[in-house]
Amino acid sequence: MDIYMIMTEGYTDCALAEAVLQKYMGYCQYRAKGDMPVCLQKLVGVYPGELGELEPKDMPHFYHKGESAVMVKTAKGFSEIAKKLVLVMDAVLSAGDDDSAVKGVFIICDADLSPGMSNWQKLEADLEIMDGVELDREKGRISYEGLDLCYKIHQIPQKGEGAVEKLLLGMLGKIEPGLAECAGNYRSQIMDERFERLHRSWAKDRKVQEFYADKVQLGAALAVLKPDRPVGYAVKDCLVDSKKKQELMEIEEFQSLYQRLNDWLGEEAEQRTR
Amino acid sequence: MKLDSFYVETYRGLKEVQLENFTDINVFVGKNNSGKTSLLEAMVLSGLFDNAQQMITTLVSRYQKVSIDRVSTMFDINDERKKIGLKHCLYDENTKEHVQIDTDIVSAEKTESTQQEEGIREIRQLVLRLEYNTCCRETKKKQKAVFRIDFWQEGAALTIRSGRRKSSDTLTRVPCQFVAFSRFDGTDYLLNALDEILEQGKRADLVEALQIFDESIQNFEIIGEERDIKIIRDGDNAPLSVYDYGNGMYKAFYIASAALLSENGILLIDEIEAGIHREALEKFVRYLGQLCQKKKIQMFVTTHSLETLDLLLQSCQQADRVNDLTVYNIRNTKEKTTARRYSGQKLKDLRTEIGLDVR
Fold first, then answer.
1. Are A156 and A192 members of one domain?
2. In this complex, which of B314, B329, B354 lies closest to A88 when CB atoms are compared?
3. Which residues in B lie closer than 8 A to residue A94 (C-beta atoms)?
4. A44 vs B contacts (CB less than 8 Å)
């Protein structure tokens, strides 16, 4: 079985990647640990009771289709991606001979503001300084203590500045245009200068405040879509609608993400491995 | 003196495994039959012991019944292939010198005879000679020592005598204790350890350790011709024998005694958690960690328990000495033995960030 790993910056892009895998690419979620390949079983966390047991734990999710299996995990922050990736590779190595089935890692992160170095360049720099990691940027390969994988970094958006929320707002506009308009109006009200003190508590830079405003706008809409669940459920269950693929593919950023995932994990990839 | 590295070319099922960069607390984990206990035994055999009886006890401890045939099989004396090849490197923090010691079996001679006096008796003898070649990396000073062990069997009775080393070898004298409960009933071993504890004036230290398991313990004594170990507790009408307690107390005596006798040396413990309840284990692990730090003891333990591993990590973290802990995952296949090393910090990250079970 060929195994791939998807590492995302945050929870919302994690939910988005999972939804695309399930709804548009035909992957099914593993429900029983024993059904998974050994090296993926090693990634099901068994956390110590004494060290931080009250902190929330982000368990990866695992999917499979035919002879491919995928782990999707959030790093919980851009600055954590390199470290978490190395730890995951340690886990793969600890599985022993099974590590030969792991083919590569796909990293999804925000573009954010792009003065100077882009986020994907920063990420490559972070990876290169990790002990034991060697990066071949030309060939897109990462090796760590004998484990050799291909890696790909996908920034959202591909062009310009921003974060995954911009893409999700675009998707909202396609799926629930009325709600999107309401959320837009709500954003305008929240960004009024009478709330300047709150804006400054998010960030000092106005551009970064606008990123947070995207989160507020999106969060308001997702709360309407799924009032009683965390935002990831609204993304998976409502925004990535299996009946609205054509509409979503009209969004350039969504098409770009879907195409890259499909190239890597989809039908074409399956045919390449046969 | 601390163990810096250890190489097993061959010993029992272990093949060409290199263990490096030992720290103060070293933990071996791995599946059953991966060779964790064999590693501890190999450390003993490689010349850490200065006490021949302890070495022999360790070597034969995995068997319920020992005979010359058993020892012959253990060292495979009929096989021309090399049976034991061990190298360990000790580091002296005072002199900043590394001393490497290579261990080989020089010879294993087996003889059988029949004596007619006082009836026909079958007598069998096995003489095992182990050679230790030592070399100081910095001064290049070399020494050789040969250690002889005589196994003498009359009928079913086996006597083991240790010979003296042919040359004195001050470089490798390291206080060392090996503790493995699942293997043998070592009452004599425990009594000898207690005698030594009392001789060294460490009674109070041992009582302090036992109080982790039972706060009412006040003292202990060795009583009577049969040398029964009695525990004196607050509120009891009469002292209880250690055998009246569960396995955990018996084990506490063992480990605590061994630890106290390992000052400035090395303590090897097989399956540290077996027989100890989780609540006592937490306190005991903390106690051991503090004792090892205070008495400059380097510890090597094996465990199957993730909980024990986490407790060791927690204890080191609380003492601000996470990198004094190292874990080696031992994996053994037909072709080779491998040891994957995790530093304390790496272990902490793996356990807390992704919940990796490193066993």
1. no
2. B354
3. 329, 340, 356, 358
4. 355
More confident residue, B12 or B16: B16
Domains assigned to chain B: 2-175+262-354 (3.40.50)
The verdict on A152 and A45 lying in the same domain is yes
Domain that holds residue A215: 165-244
ipTM: 0.83
Q: Is B335 on the interface with A (CB under 8 A)?
A: no
Confidence of residue B12 (pLDDT cuts 50, 70, 90): confident
Residue-averaged pLDDT of chain A? 88
Pick A96's closest partner by Cβ from B331, B348, B350: B331
The DSSP H or E segment spanning A183 is: helix A177-190
Lowest mean pLDDT across A171-185, A186-200, B84-98, B314-328:
B84-98
**Which chain B positions have a beta carbon within 8 Å of A84's beta carbon?**
353-354
Q: What pLDDT is stored for residue B98 in this prediction?
A: 83
Residues A189 and A133 in one domain: no
Nearest C-alpha of chain A: how many angstroms from B310?
6
CATH number for the domain that contains residue A141? 3.40.50.10620
Q: Are residues A177 and A78 in the same domain?
A: no
